[in-house]
Amino acid sequence: MIELNIVKEQYARMTDQELQFFAVNESDKLTFESFHLLKAEFEKRNLDLSVIESAEIDKSLADLDRQTVFEKAATLEFTNSVWQFALDQKEAGKTNFEIYHLLLNKGVDQQYAFMLTQSLDTKSKELKENYTNEMIAGWIILCVGLVAVYLAFNGTLSGMFGLYGFLITAGGGFKIYKSASKKEKYQKITKNIETENNNYTEN
């Protein structure tokens, strides 16, 4: 208890910049208790929790993967599969409590399962933003392709550029469609999380 109080005091003495730098570079070396003290200090100062949450959980799940009896092809695949399982369950309307127990049934350690469920909101918003950027990139690609097709039919460019333009346009359209469907998935997850939080607050 005394050691944890010392850690807590050290966090409190750090500036916001020092605390964020420490979180980014040292959070993977912290004990479970020290990490939660760090997270509490972030919450106290209203700092961005995404700085530490996803990185810490990914590392913890990766460590867990190396401790399991089953040999997996890649640690990253295991980590992503656990994240995806939890997000899929949230999309289906499961509560954090239900997802927590489902993760335990899959063999995930209770500490990591708890941390993961508490970070689903951050993760879903991060992924939603990523797919928004993917959609923007898709629109840019599509526009470039349309310009190439137009210039080819206009005679400014050769017919070969028209073919390339058509392929680029198709690729951009597919990218937009795929990213839009993924974004919709994480929008639904975010909405489910907000609904659960509102219900919890009301009760």
Mean pLDDT: 80
So how many helices? 9
Report the principal-axis shape.
elongated
- Category from helices, strands and their pairing: mainly alpha
Question: What is the alpha-carbon Rg in Å?
Answer: 22 Å
Give the fraction of residues assigned to helices. Answer: over 70%
**Strand composition percent:** under 5%
N-to-C order of helices and strands: HHHHHHHHH
Q: What's the number of extended β-strand segments?
A: 0
Straight-line N-to-C gap: 33 Å
**Biggest sheet, in brief?**
none
As residue ranges, the low-confidence spans are: 68-74
Key terms for this structure?
mainly alpha, 9 helices, single chain, 0% strand
Description:
This protein is 82% helix and 0% strand. The protein has nine helices and no strands. It has helices spanning 2-13, 16-26, 32-45, 53-67, 75-91, 96-105, 110-118, 120-154, 159-202. The radius of gyration is 22 Å and the shape is elongated. Residues 68-74 have low confidence and may be disordered.
Describe the secondary-structure layout.
Elements lengths: L1 H12 L2 H11 L5 H14 L7 H15 L7 H17 L4 H10 L4 H9 L1 H35 L4 H44 L1
Helix pairs in contact: 1-3, 4-5, 5-9, 6-7, 8-9
